[in-house]
TrEMBL record:
Name of protein: O-antigen ligase domain-containing protein
Top-level lineage group: Bacteria
The keyword Repressor appears for this protein: no
Transmembrane segments: 23-41, 53-72, 78-98, 105-124, 144-161, 173-202, 208-234, 285-306, 318-337, 343-360
Alphabetically ordered keywords of this record: Membrane, Transmembrane, Transmembrane helix
């Protein structure tokens, strides 16, 4: 349900992703409680003690505190839904078996391949035309494309570490073609960015994870300075490519010290929806973190991204480049927007986190272990 139905159903109906992820995660939790042999209670403790999760909890805590001074009422409900979704994802990831069976691991590339084929077929049959509202909120086909841009990386990693490089390459090519035909906003830049980091990390994952951690943290923390510099260079009419950044620079200049505190969770989104902020307001997650949560929220986001990169870089050598590529794709989507501000995006990101946990716990031997003659009273288990 998580890796096949949840990828296919949103192509036809955008609301299904909100239903399928909680149901699939709840079934996973129920099965973990019924199967005591596959679950270790230390997994949840280890997850909660990991630095990336601590940084994410700090970000969530500060977002909750900022509801005190946010000027709108809607963000409180959005925050509750987002927090509940992330808590469910964390529980599902920690309650998964310590070793993923190959039969379960295969569901991830199967789901990605089926979704790519379905996305191409529906795009060619319907030839959709997007309205302004579809572009802002992202159409069902666009959402499916962004989901593919996220999940294709752990899916390719699951194939490559078992020696199926041709299948992994074919899956990546099919995903790129599907996203190109569907016109998914920011999916292609995310795939390209992930591909660049994957190529750099191949054979040197630890060094790549350090470089990526520093780059992502620097982009988050230095972004307001870049906006101010753009506003200084073009105080009146900036080039089209820099218009959002220049607008942010003018906002920082007018806000002053308020930039360090933030306007409260959801202020940017509800400000645009209510007409208090113009349509030229940046829709990047980095802008929203700074505008809503200020310097503390940005520092927590930078710490979470950096620690996640370092954690992924410690994965097995054959798998780490794919996971670093997937982390880069997620960051590019958040950097460009508009998907990063939406609740459905958090749901897709949660599904991606479960996929990362699934693959990192996989059993990756390429062939059955062979017992010496005369040993073993029963055939060896299939650990392929």
């Amino acid at each position: 349900m998580l890796f096949v139905i949840s990828l296919l159903a949103p192509i036809l109906a955008r609301q299904t992703v909100y239903i399928l992820l909680p149901v699939g995660a709840a079934l996973l939790l129920a099965s973990a409680l019924l199967s005591s042999n596959n679950y270790s209670g230390s997994s949840l403790k280890a997850l909660l003690a990991s630095p990336p999760v601590w940084a994410a909890l700090l970000l969530a805590f500060w977002a909750g505190v900022s509801l005190v001074w946010t000027p709108f009422e809607g963000p409180a409900e959005r925050f509750g839904k987002a927090a509940a979704t992330m808590a469910l994802v964390a529980a599902a990831a920690s309650f998964m078996p310590l070793r993923t069976k190959t039969s379960n691991l295969n569901l991830l590339p199967i789901g990605v391949a089926a979704s790519a084929v379905a996305l191409v077929a529906i795009t060619l049959l319907t030839a959709p035309k997007y309205s302004v509202e579809d572009i802002l909120d992202v159409s069902p086909l666009g959402r499916a494309g962004l989901g593919l841009a996220l999940l294709v990386w752990p899916a390719m990693g699951a194939l490559a570490v078992r020696g199926r490089w041709v299948m992994a390459g074919g899956l990546g090519l099919a995903t790129f073609l599907a996203c190109f035909l569907a016109g998914a906003p920011n999916a292609l830049p995310a795939l390209v960015g992930g591909g660049i980091v994957f190529g750099f990390a191949f054979g040197r994952a630890r060094a790549a994870s350090l470089a990526l951690a520093g780059l992502m943290a620097a982009v988050v923390l230095v972004a307001p300075l870049a906006a101010l510099a753009t506003q200084v260079v073009w105080p009146e009419h900036s080039p089209e490519f820099f218009k959002h950044l220049a607008f942010w620079g003018r906002m920082i200049a007018s806000d002053g010290p308020r930039t360090l505190l933030g306007h409260g969770f959801g202020a940017a989104t509800w400000g645009v929806l209510g007409g208090y902020l113009p349509p030229t307001t940046p829709r990047s997650l980095i802008f929203q973190i700074w505008f809503d949560l200020g310097a503390l929220g940005a520092a927590a986001l930078a710490l979470a991204l950096a620690r996640a990169s370092l954690a992924v870089g410690r994965a097995r050598a054959a798998l780490a480049p794919f996971l670093l590529g997937g982390l880069t794709a997620s960051f590019v989507i958040c950097l460009l927007g508009p998907a990063a501000e939406q609740l459905w995006w958090l749901t897709l990101a949660g599904l991606d986190a479960i996929a990362f946990a699934l693959v990192m716990r996989g059993q990756f031997r390429k062939r059955r272990p062979v017992l010496p003659i005369g040993l073993g009273a029963r055939p060896a288990d299939d650990a392929v």
